[in-house]
Batch of 4 targets.
Target 1
Amino acid sequence: MAAAESIAVAMGCDERTVRNIIADYERAASLPDAVIQAAHAKGIDLSQRKYRPAIAAIESAIGIDGHRQEEIDADEANRIVSNVLVMPPAQREHIQDERFVPLTREEKQHFVVRMKIRTALTNIEADRKLSVLLAALEEEMFDVWGFTGLVTVTITPRASGLTLDGRKRREDAA
C-alpha cells in the first residue's frame, strides 16, 4: 500500500489507479508466455486496461480448448490471439489496400490543415470562398503571427499528392 501511494504521488494520479495498473499487469502476466509473445508480435500490450475483455476471452478460449498453459505452442497462441483480438485500424487499412503508403508526419500535418480549411469553408458559396479565406488569413497573420506589413503571394492551384480522404497513392510515393 505504501509503495502504491508513493507511485501514485510520483505519477500524479490516485492510489487506486496504480493498484488497477498493477492488477492489469498481473492478469496479463498470468497468461501463457506464448500468448503474450503472440500479442506482442502484433503490437499489442495485453497489460493495458483496454485489453481486459480480450484477456478474459483469451482465458476462456484456453479453457474451452482444454489446453493447459504449458501445452500451448506459438502457432496455437497466434491462432487464439488472432481470433480474440481485432487488428488495429492502421494495420488493417495497410493490409487491405496495398495501393497506398503511410504518410509522413509532415504530410499528415499538411492534410490536417487542408481538412480544417475545407471544413471552415463548407457552408460558404463557391464564389466567396477565396475572399473569405484571404480575409481570415489576413486577420490571423496580424492578430496571432504579428505580421503588420504587406505580404504579396501568388497562388497557383495544383493537384495534391494525397487523395481527398488523406491517403497517398503508391505511385506518388516513389
Note: The longest helix spans residues 129-145.
Target 2
Amino acid sequence: MLLRSLRIAKGGAKAEIETTRMITEKVAALAEAQVAATAAALRGSKKHRVAKKALGVDARRVSSNRRRLAK
C-alpha cells in the first residue's frame, strides 16, 4: 500500500496509470475472491476454509504488486 501510495503521490502520467490500475485490480480481485469462496462453499468446505480461499486471492495479488512496485 505504501509503495502504491508513493507512486500516486508523485503525480503525473504514472500516477494516473497506477490509480486506474488499482481500481481495475480491486474489482477483478473481488470477483475472483467471490468465485473462490463460492466454489469452496459449494464443495462443502467449512467456513474457515472458505475464508482462506478468498483471502488467498488477495495474498497472491499483494505479493505480485509488491514485486512490481518495488522495481
Note: The mean pLDDT is 93.
Target 3
Amino acid sequence: MPMRIARYLAHLPSLALAVVLSCANVAYGSDLPEAPEPFHGVVVSRTSLLLAGGVVASRALDWASTEECLRRSWCHEGELPNALVRSKPGLAAFEASMSALGIFAQHEIGKHGHRKLAIMGQVVSSTVILGQDAYNYYVDKSYPRRP
C-alpha cells in the first residue's frame, strides 16, 4: 500500500505544473523566451584569445604555486589527490587539460550564441584560480601557529 501512494505522489509536481499552466493561459510555450540564434560570425575574436591566454596563465601559476606549496613541510593540497599532486608531469598534464577544457567550453558556449556567458565564465574561473594562487604564495611561512 505505501508503494502505491509513493507512486502517485511522484506525479504530483507534474500535475501541479499542468494546473498552473492551464490557469495562466499559456498556450504551448508562446510566452516563453526564444533561444538565442547561433552565432554565425567569427567565434575566435581578440577577446576570446585574451581570455584563453588568461586561463592558460592562471593554470600555469596554479601549477607553480602548488609546487611551491609542496616544498613546505606543513603545506598540503586540499582539493586534488596526493598522488596527482606529487607527480610533476601528472599535475602539469592535469592543468593543461583543464585549460583546454575551459577554452573548449568558452568556444562552444560562444558558438551557440551565449558570448557574454562564455566571457563571464572565463573571467570568474581565472579570478578564482588566481585568488587561490595568491593565497598559496601569501601563506605565512611560520604556519602552523600555536594558540
Note: Residues 46-138 form one domain.
Target 4
Amino acid sequence: MKTAAEFINGLKKTIKAVRYEIEVNSDSTDKLYYQKRQERDFAKVTDEMNKEVLKAFIKEFTSEKHDLVADPNKAFTAALEAGGKKYRNWILKRFGDGKKDIALRPLTIQYIKQKGNAKIGINTGKLRRDIRTAPLKIQMIQNKK
C-alpha cells in the first residue's frame, strides 16, 4: 500500500506529463505570436503556474466528489479539467494590470496615448474573450526511454 507522500509524488509525475493548449482562432494565434515576439509571452508556463495547476489537479482528484475505486477514470478526467481551468485562468490574469509572474515589456508612451490606456495585451478585448471561450486541448506526453 502506498503512503500519502508516494501517492502525491505519483500525481506530481503524472501532471508533469500533461500539456494544456487553448485552441484559439487564427487571429488570436497571430496576436499571441506577435505579443510573444514583443516580449509579452502571456502563455508562458512558469514553475509558479505549474504548482497552482498541480494543486487544482490534486484537489479535484482527491475530492469527495469522486469515487477513486469505482471510477478512477472519471476522477482523473475531472482533475485534468480542473488543472486546465486553472491554466486558462492563470493566462487570463496576466492581461492588463494583472498577475506579474512573468516580465511583460511595457508599452511605449506613444502607443499608450494612441490606444488610451496602458493595459498590456488589451486593446479590443477579442483576444481575452477568445482565450476565455476557446476549447482546451489536453495531451498526455509519453516519456521516451
Note: The chain has a mean pLDDT of 88.
